[in-house]
Amino acid sequence: MFWRSVVGKLAITILLLVSFVLFILTILLLEFFEDYHVEQAEKDMMQTAQKVSRMIEQYEDHDLALENASLVKDPLSRVAVISGDGAFWTSESADSDLNDLNAKWLRNDEELKNVFAKGEKVKKQTLLPDTNIEALVVGKPINQNGAVFVYQSLDIVNQTKAETTKIILLAAGIAIILTTIFAFFLSTRITSPLIKMREAAIDLTRGEFNTKVPILTHDEIGELAMAFNRMGRQLKFHINALRQEKEQFSGIVTSMADGVITLNRNGDMLITNRPAEMFIENLYYENDLTNTKDNSKAPEPLNTLLQSVIQDEKEAIQEITTQGRTWVMIMTPLYDQSYIRGAVAVLRDMTEERRSDKLREDFIANVSHELRTPISMLQGYSEAIVDGVAESKEEKNELAQIIHDESMRMGRLVNELLDLARMEAGHNQLNKEMIDASAYTNRILKKFKGPAEENNVTLHLEKHLEEGTIAFDPDRMEQVFTNLIDNAIRHTGENGFVNVTIESTASNFYVSIEDNGAGIPEDDIPFVFERFYKADKSRTRNRKKKGTGLGLAIAKNIVEAHGGTINVKSRMNEGTTFEFNIPVE
Question: HAMP domain spans which residues (predicted)?
Answer without folding.
Answer: 188-240
